[in-house]
Write a structure and sequence with these properties.
The chain is an alpha/beta fold. It is built from 6 helices and 11 strands.
Length: about 200
């Protein structure tokens, strides 16, 4: 992997903080230079890949070093970057809770370990990196209303954009994510009400 010109330490932080710090750090290097992002959140792999894809910066790869993920990003020239636009259709927790009383599709695009630690009972686990496979297998659901959730609304925003590009036009990003969810949660030993446990944030 190419030597980095700058390193940003996001170890111990969970989504969305690695991307928040990455956005700030990328502005502190010159176009063509490389940023190294150190993170321990497994979800940071999909987060970094989707963020670079949306913004035009070049994702060079990730190296695993024990519990640490070392992500490498080459900064693009200003004329090559794009604004990080959000998916326009969003839903609050209240809207999702009301919709759950009906038969709606709810996709949880966090990593499997995050999902296993605690998820909304009706949610189907579809990690962001597998969303295109899910689309291929579920084209018959393209006209249905679909809600998408992740930890903080970032990965779910990316998933909604991908779904929309493939003909799913009734997809809603649950922007508050699981970090603020106070509804029912399925955990390994049963179901309870209350927020899922989260890793450290700042």
């Amino acid at each position: 992997m190419q030597e980095a010109n700058k390193t940003v330490d996001c170890q111990g932080l969970s989504c969305p903080m690695p991307i928040v710090k990455t956005k700030r750090a990328i502005t502190e290097i010159h176009p063509g230079q490389v940023l190294e992002v150190l993170a321990t959140d497994p979800g940071s792999v999909a987060d970094v890949q989707s963020w670079t894809r949306r913004t035009g910066h070049e994702y060079l790869g990730t190296v695993e070093d024990g519990p640490t993920f070392k992500h490498y990003i080459r900064r693009a020239a200003l004329e090559q970057t794009e604004p990080d636009k959000k998916h326009p259709l969003t839903a609050s927790h209240e809207t999702l809770l009301a919709a759950m009383e009906q038969d709606v599709q709810l996709l949880d695009v966090r990593e499997p370990l995050e999902y296993a630690a605690g998820h909304i009972p009706s949610a189907v686990s579809v990690p962001l990196g597998q969303i295109k496979n899910w689309i291929t297998e579920h084209q018959h659901l393209a006209q249905q209303k679909i809600f998408v959730v992740c930890h903080s609304g970032n990965r779910s925003d990316t998933a909604c954009k991908i779904l929309h590009e493939h003909g799913f036009h009734r997809v809603f990003n649950v922007v508050e994510g699981m970090r603020k969810w106070t509804g029912p949660i399925q955990v390994p030993n049963g179901t309870h009400s209350g927020p899922a446990s989260h890793s450290k944030e700042s």
